[in-house]
Model the fold of this input.
Amino acid sequence: MSWRVTVRDGPRVEKLRAAALGQALDLVEREGRVLANGPGRRPVELRARTFTPQQQVAGRVELRGPRVRAGVDVRGDGSVEAWTGRVRRRVIAQEERESSYDALRRVLAQSVSADP
Done:
């Protein structure tokens, strides 16, 4: 099986591959942490609305594999939010003392192990 990891940081897009799910999740975490430690975003002010750094997606790390599409969004304030889904992204709720990366690993381990 081949797993693809796509890193989006503004106009920069980088595509990586991993042979196993564990390796792909390690790539997602590594690249997500790099994006989260980057420069923050300023608020964007429009006529009727202001978007705070927390509301902006500064970068995205997407994981694709057999029947799986998931990833993490890095917000403008450096916070990270894990998600799953193809058309509609569903945020993964974190359990107590769990990082976004751990939550992503937990959900994908359950869904991939349930597949035949």
